[in-house]
Design a protein that fits this description.
The chain starts with a helix and ends in a 9-residue tail after the last helix. It is elongated. The protein is 81% helix and 2% strand. It has helices at residues 2-19, 26-36, 38-59, 65-129, 135-169, 193-197, 205-224, 231-296, 301-336; strands at residues 22-24, 178-180. It has 345 residues and is an all-alpha fold. Residues 266-293 form a coiled coil.
């Protein structure tokens, strides 16, 4: 009997532990993504492997210069790949977190809108009974309520999907119950475009590999430019060097363009926050006016409820604008190979 009781207690305890929500902040989510993400873990292992190989090559007295150079370049490439994996993981975490948090707020807003439409339907029905409205007015109010209820259902259905996607991004167990805090304000974009465009060939994994290829090709030219190497070999080496350099230059131009576009997107996103906040302030002022008019007897309660929903919608727009800044900064970080969110160590 004691064994059964103990087993039941342990089962209930485990069930309670599983049902307890996991509280997360945006900072915590990104930290987990860049330390425990699958791609980051793989990239870290590849870097350690490359470092071990470099140590072995350096310790081998028979290693030739090309072998040593390639081993050193592999370490540089894998280090850039790890940094890139961290930035990509941070972007995925930021996007997933913001979407999931917005989805939860969208449910609240949709519920408020449905409540408003339900009240408007009741008013239309009452007006019809008093013969100051038509059946068409009631039909329109019913259609509006049906639409708002469907929006609510859709919002409620999308929330667990987005939370599950975030949990997967953070390498959390399936079915984890997440409790997300508000993302908060994103930092101002303080770094210049020129600074982000500089040194891309030392930060972006694809450009690091291209730069390594160009450097190795240049080394092959130097090694072939002597009296004992056939002229044809030198010509081939020079052709390979020119091709590698063109590939690097082309990739660098494309990357700089990508950084410029991402930079402008971040600037635009930050500007939209100010616009959304101004609209929210106006909505709050309208709500205060409606409440004052209700108190003075010159407005109906439904007008206050309408103003409340409009204020909620305006606040949600601010939240979306702030989320847009976070996503834009995370995207800029990936494009530039440098964190600008302040969330990646």
């Amino acid at each position: 009997m004691k064994r059964i009781t103990l087993t039941l207690l342990l089962t209930l305890t485990a069930a309670g532990a599983q049902s307890a929500p996991t509280s997360l902040t945006l900072t915590g989510a990104v930290t987990r993504a860049v330390t425990q993400g699958v791609d980051v873990t793989t990239a870290r292992a590849n870097l350690q492997k490359a470092q071990a190989n470099l140590r072995a090559v350096r310790a081998d007295p028979t290693s030739i210069i090309t072998t040593l150079t390639q081993a050193e370049q592999d370490v540089a490439a894998q280090a850039a790949a790890l940094d890139g994996a961290k930035l990509a993981a941070a972007q995925a975490a930021v996007t997933g977190y913001v979407q999931a948090f917005e989805a939860a707020q969208r449910v609240t807003l949709a519920q408020a809108q449905a409540n408003l439409s339900d009240r408007q339907l009741k008013i239309a029905q009452a007006r019809l009974a008093a013969r100051v409205a038509t059946t068409l007015d009631v039909s329109r109010a019913q259609n509006a309520l049906n639409s708002d209820r469907q929006d609510l259902v859709s919002a409620q259905a999308s929330l667990p999907v987005l939370e599950a996607g975030l949990a997967r991004t953070l390498n959390l167990p399936a079915g984890t119950d997440l409790k997300l805090s508000a993302p908060g304000d994103a930092p101002k974009l303080s770094v210049t475009l020129a600074a982000l465009q500089g040194g891309l060939d030392k930060r972006l994994p694809s450009l690091v590999q291209a730069a390594n290829g160009a450097a190795l090709a240049a080394l092959q030219v130097r090694l072939s430019d002597n009296e004992y190497t056939p002229a044809r070999t030198l010509d081939d080496a020079r052709t390979a060097q020119a091709n590698a350099q063109r590939g690097l230059d082309d990739g660098l131009r494309a990357a700089q363009t990508g950084v410029r576009d991402a930079y402008r997107s971040a600037q635009d996103a930050q500007a939209r926050v100010a616009v959304a906040r101004e609209a929210a302030a106006n909505a709050q002022a309208a709500l205060r006016n409606a409440q004052a008019r209700l108190k003075a007897g010159t407005a109906a309660a439904i007008e206050v409820q309408q103003a409340q929903v409009q204020a909620q919608q305006a606040d949600f727009s601010v939240l979306q604008a702030q989320g847009g800044v976070w996503r834009a900064l995370a995207g800029l970080g990936v494009a530039a190979g440098q964190d600008v969110t302040g969330l990646v160590n």
